[in-house]
Target: Peptidase M20 dimerisation domain-containing protein
Amino acid sequence: MTWLFSSLLLTGGLVSVLALTPDSFTAFKAQAGFHTNAALGLSGLSSHGVVGSDCPQTPALHPSKHCELNDRLNRLYDSERFKLHTYETLGDAIRIRTEIYDDIGPVGGDDRWKVFDEFHEFLEDRFEILYSELSVTKVDEYGLVIHWQGSDDSLPPILLAAHQDVVPVDVDTVDEWKERPFSGHYDGTWIWGRGSCDDKGPLIALMTVMEELLEAGFTPRRTIVLASGFDEEIGGKMGALQISQYLQNEYGQDAFALVVDEGSGFLNMESEGDNVIIALPGTAEKGRTDIRVEVSTPGGHSSFPPQHTSIGILSSAVVAIESTKHTPKLLRDGTPFATYQCIAEHVPNVPDSFRRLVEKAKEDDEALCQLKQTLLEELYPVQNSALLGTTQAVTLIGGGIKVNALPESASAIVSNRIGQHSSVIEVREHFTKILRPVAADFNLTLEAFGVEVTTGSSGHLSIGTAFNNAFEPSPKTPTDSSNPYRIFSGTIRAVLEGSKIHPSKDVVVSPMLVLVNTDTRHYWNLTKHIFRYSHFSQEDVHGFHTVNESVRAEAVIEHIRFLTTLILNWDEATV
Ligand SMILES: *[C@@H]1O[C@H](CO)[C@@H](O)[C@H](O)[C@H]1NC(C)=O
Ligand SMILES: *[C@@H]1O[C@H](CO)[C@@H](O)[C@H](O)[C@H]1NC(C)=O
Ligand SMILES: *[C@@H]1O[C@H](CO)[C@@H](O)[C@H](O)[C@H]1NC(C)=O
Ligand SMILES: [Zn+2]
Model:
């Protein structure tokens, strides 16, 4: 039973885990008994590379023309001096508190932006060669675009991205941190502080790689562009969106060979001393829209109230919302189905019944339906529901100003994450449909997204978009025999197969649907080939967006190795 339970959890849970922020995989591991699961054998890996595979694995891709340079840089990265210098650079970056706030004013119109000037001075100072030899453009003051001209203009450039801003530290939690939240302290194993994983580790890794390549005399054939936004944590409209528009003007639409930004990572699955790694680059992300529901009724003294106040009516609306869930869908052309196929084909010790069901579901509608039921009812319902459909969570509520005054209005905000098959409009229609009876019950005028739907005389129920947040689910990065996917996944395999800190018996790469959004939501016009991936495992990072954020120092070096190989592989590629 334990074995079956762990395997089922693994099957269902694995895929969900990296889609969330990486600290959730820590919770997942604990839940699944990840490390102690001795039953995870390695028998399932024999189908690698077989013809007709539903999840073909690219062989490890190593630079050939740039082999000597890659080796030389890897030796440099091994040196204690290089490591300590890198840790110090990341520590310094963390110590500059580039916190971003939901209510921050426009750039230049709010003193809280000033710290970004300091951050830019620091980068310029630390990455001297990069700033002096490459062309650096500032977009909307703090957006960074760094252009490294290649010698062959017929090759589309690559875009590598990482953001500068970090989520604020809640002052009430400072005491719970092992190290001060902005200490940047290296304790011999970990580098501590807000931003260490998200996203200053990857940003410093990227700049370090470009600096080292310059210093080594590398001259790219293919143009390399670095993009760095500064408001990712509040939606990227000042940073990434402006950067995207700048890039579309300068390079053209669809001009990039690929875009790589933060995202999911890889998962270590230990078993009897062996390690199998599942890397899950995000090849798509869900959509998102925040919806505000507001009830307004006449005010008055609480001593002679009507039967229901705005707050009471809003409560009925919230109950209606929570009792009507969206229906998840398992579609053959969706990213989650591709992930389940990879798991069924390559993950060790997935139960045979599950393997067979996934195989059958490729053609057989009944099996597809049964698979969906198994995923949603038996395996990991919460995570699989999130992967397969639109989710909704009522996350904010407000109303009332005084105990003896009837509240004239009350409102709630619902965070909706839109399933890959759905759309913003479908979510809006869902809200209008489920709240129409509430408006009728309380005799309210229903207004939905600027349109009056029904009229009533006791007040208003209005539904609208909150925070101006409405993003469709992303397009899917091509994966089947697509060259950029092949190069990207071959690079992951090459770096992991040579990894000193993540020794593995095998590496599997699978496409993945990311549940949250990244700056790439603004980059769709730049390329079809977007990869949301940070080269970290679940053991390399802690405390995303919360207390004790820290990154394993050696993992930053691994990230540097990954980006170096990625750049060199792309420089040799002809696509
Ligand atoms: C932060 O780390 C310290 C030391 O490991 C630990 O005692 C504390 O519980 C952690 N805080 C949280 C909220 O995880
Ligand atoms: C709504 O209120 C109006 C005016 O108070 C009243 O005439 C009407 O019957 C009410 N309708 C319902 C469905 O309660
Ligand atoms: C992408 O291109 C379309 C068509 O040119 C344009 O309408 C849209 O605003 C662009 N999106 C971004 C984020 O630049
Ligand atoms: Zn981030």
Observations:
- The chain is about 35% helix and 20% strand.
- The first helix runs from residue 2 to 17.
- The two ends are 49 Å apart (CA to CA).
- The chain has three domains: 67-262+513-572, 287-327+390-471, 328-388.
